[in-house]
Amino acid sequence: MSALKLLRKLAGFKGLTITGFCFSGGRLHLQVKLSRCGCRCQQCGRRGTIITSSTHDSRQWEDIRLGAWVLILHYMPREIHCLTHGRGQEQIPWAHPKSRVTYRHDYQLLRLSQQMTQSQVAKLLGVPPSTLSGRLHRAIERYRDGHEIENLHYIGIDEVSYCKGHKYLTIVYDLERSVVVWIGIGKARKTIDHFFGEVLEEWQLDEIKGACCDMSDTFIGAIEDFCPNAVLVLDRFHVMKALNEALDEVRKEQWRNAPKEGRKALKGLRWLLFKHAGNRTKKDTRDLNTLQKSNRRIYRAWVLKDEFNRFWEYTYEASAASFLKNWTKSALLSRLEPIRKFVRTLRGHQHRIITFIKCPLTNAIAEGLNRMIRQIRNRASGFRNVECFKDLIYLTVGDLDIAGEIPEDQQLVWL
Ligand SMILES: [Zn+2]
Questions:
Q1: In this structure, is residue 389 part of a structural domain?
Q2: pLDDT for 150 beyond 70
Q3: Using CA atoms, how far apart are residues 23 and 188, in angstroms rounded to an integer?
Q4: pTM over cut 0.90
Q5: β-strand partners of 31
């Protein structure tokens, strides 16, 4: 076997033949040519006729590492004529037309970035971290270019914080497929309006059958304005979170007002109060019974919270509505200000909560994805800008398998 054939086999190339090589500056430069005869159009992939045997400017593409060497491919693309697209450069099987790196390089970059921190990937690929995020961004743009959101029927909208909780991203989820379909910077009305008004077409808006969000007027307003056919359901977890916060407010109030010796009894209560009935142990029940005698206000608030959980189990809207009416009445009588405040908020949204009974949508999937997004945020700690954070979200939990867009024969089998 000749040295060139051996080199081709070692590097695992497909679609090209090596005609010469040289080592320089930590790189292994390879002169290559296409294995197949003829030439194809860059845009449609159909055969064309060669106009010039080269465009006279040799191009180079950075490939993956082979041992200690980064492979660099050199080739002079030919100019061709396509019946549909006219004059243009021929299609190169190893790289995207707009790219200066090979498909294999992109594939490696994308797959590794899905699983490792940016600095680890940079180290492994031998590029500075600052270069890496730029390359990743360009790669993601290349393969997401022209991608359209399809079959969007049930959506969830939520916000995710970054920059130590000072800034926000608005995230739109496809609740059927459990993926992120869109990310916007900020959480203001204009951000979400941009998604509904400019990203989606009118027929796509008509296709949305259900939407789920928290109690913020921004998201509710946008959904009601733009999605005429969607049932709006307030997210169960956000409602319960707001009620838990009200309950915690009562607990804090009692803690502040309690004398020093009385505080001992209130210690470690927080998690016990938040616990769902299904996860309660016998000891928890005993502790709650003690609470009934030791602090009636916290106990009363807890009972109200616990009762509210029953609402989600109703199957008939009328019975759910009457439950809600009775619950609201007794909560207002409780003289617990944080709970009463919750009730006042709830009253404004009552019709959007009852929709849960016939359309049990929740952002539970979104919560799972949010957990992954928080991991991405930690993995990208010190990400250079918010675009980089967005890139990683699209790459890891987005609606398109970005690396899967690379031609199959150019994907690396070991990744
Ligand atoms: Zn063509």
A1: no
A2: yes
A3: 55
A4: no
A5: 20, 74
> What is the band of 36 on the pLDDT scale with cuts at 50, 70, 90?
confident
Residue 167: inside a domain? yes
Whether residue 230 is found in the same domain as residue 251? no
| Residues whose Cβ atom is located within 5 A of ion ligand 1 | 41, 43-44, 82, 84-85
Structural domains counted in the chain: 4
CB-count exposure of residue 251 (10 Å: 0-12, 13-18, 19+): buried
Do 250 and 354 lie in one domain? The reply is yes
Task: Quick: pLDDT tens for 54-84.
Answer: 656 789 999 999 888 999 999 999 999 999 9
| One domain for residues 85 and 9 | yes
200 and 348 part of one domain: no
Ligand 1 centre distance from Cα of residue 114 (Å): 34
Q: Which residues of 159-185 are buried (b: 16+ CB within 10 A; e: fewer)?
A: bbebeeeeebbbbbbbbeeebbbbbbb
Calculate how far, in angstroms, residue 51's C-alpha sits from the geometric centre of ligand 1. Answer: 14
Decide if pLDDT at 53 tops 80: no
Tell me, in angstroms, the distance from the centre of ligand 1 to residue 92's CA.
13
Sign of CA dihedral 275, 276, 281, 284: positive
For ligand 1, the distance from its centroid to the CA atom of residue 95, given in whole angstroms, is 17
Task: Provide the domain limits for residue 216.
Answer: 154-234+363-382
Compute the distance from residue 144 Cα to the ligand 1 centre, in Å. Answer: 21
pLDDT in tens, 348-394: 899 999 999 988 888 888 778 888 988 888 877 656 678 888 999 99
CA of 147 to the centre of ligand 1 (A): 21
- The answer as to whether 392 is a domain residue is no
49 shares a domain with 29: yes
Ligand 1 midpoint to CA 43 (Å)? 5
